[in-house]
Amino acid sequence: MEFYQSDHWYFGDYKGGLPGRNYSFLLYIVIVLLLVQIALTTEESLKVDSITIWLKFFLDLIELFFISDYIGKLTNSWAKLDYRPSRLLPIFVSGPALADLVVLMVLVTNKFDNDSLVVIGSYILKMSLSIYYSSFRKILDRLSFILLDSPAHTFFPVVLLTIVTYVFSVLMYVVERFNDSEHFGSIVRSFWFSIVTVTTIGYGDVTPPTSLGKSLAVLFGILGIVCIALLTANILEANARFDRLEEASQELEPEASREASRF
After folding, report:
1. Per-domain residue ranges for the chain?
2. 0.85 exceeded by the pTM?
3. 188 vs 57, 184, 201, 208, CA distance in Å?
4. Contact call for residues 223 and 197 (beta carbons, < 8 A)
5. Are 36 and 58 in contact (CB under 8 A)?
6. Is 89 exposed, middle or buried (0-12, 13-18, 19+ CB in 10 A)?
7. With contact defined as beta carbons under 8 Å apart, do 183 and 192 qualify?
8. How many Cβ atoms from other residues are within 10 Å of residue 153's Cβ?
9. Which one of 3.70.10.10, 1.10.287.70, 2.60.120.260, 3.30.450.20 gives the CATH number of domain 152-261?
10. Mean pLDDT of successive 10-residue segments in the chain (263 residues)?
11. Residues 242, 247, 249, 254: what is their CA dihedral angle, to the nearest 10 degrees?
12. How many CB atoms lie within 10 A of CB 155?
């Protein structure tokens, strides 16, 4: 993973500049602490005064960090525009800056409980924005490439797995509908067993009572393993293709800079 700023403590900005190395690590630590804090606030057994005070204290520290992060990004964005007054308002109303401001207003006004859906959703939005506007974006770019570059090829096994799951549900309905009508009395009811079998999850809460049904479960379980193996192979192939394209672009950059230096 590359860090694009020579200043390791650079906050980043709303003009596309990513945070520095040290600040990115600090940001990830704060996000992990926030996830832990959100989880602990939903636990009823921890809602005692001694623990609640500490949870609120750490939450206040996290809010202060997010406020300083917002101010720092605004300042850095304005600095890129030479602190021209006419450019300050467009920065304020830009999409990422507005989203940050709305989240901060929800958090600092304390109008909602800390374990409410609004507050938890605001934190999740803030974490998503922080991750996207950080060096972690490279991983998101890789994931986006895997999902969108050639979905028909990459996710063909998913389509095949869906078809196999439906066919298995129909067969289990035909074979076991009179033997276990509670679980196989319709194709819809058979879906649960079909899904957990074909995806190789195998909870074991439902089992076919006849030998034929068990044989079908073994057969379609093997087919499910094949489909998942194909999906894994296709994802690895897309990941390797992303690496090759990235290496090729990095090789072209020095050549382009050398060509530019000649003029």
Report:
1. 21-135, 152-261
2. no
3. 50, 8, 19, 16
4. no
5. no
6. exposed
7. yes
8. 11
9. 1.10.287.70
10. 62 82 84 82 80 84 88 90 85 85 81 74 77 73 86 88 93 93 92 91 88 93 92 91 84 58 52
11. 170
12. 17
Instruction: Report CA torsion sign: 197, 201, 207, 211.
Output: positive
- On the 0-12 / 13-18 / 19+ scale of CB atoms within 10 A, 169 is buried
Asked whether the CA dihedral 149, 154, 158, 164 is positive or negative, the reply is positive
CB of 98 closer than 8 Å to CB of 73: no
- Residue 163 has a pLDDT of 93
Structure tokens at 161: 């797995």
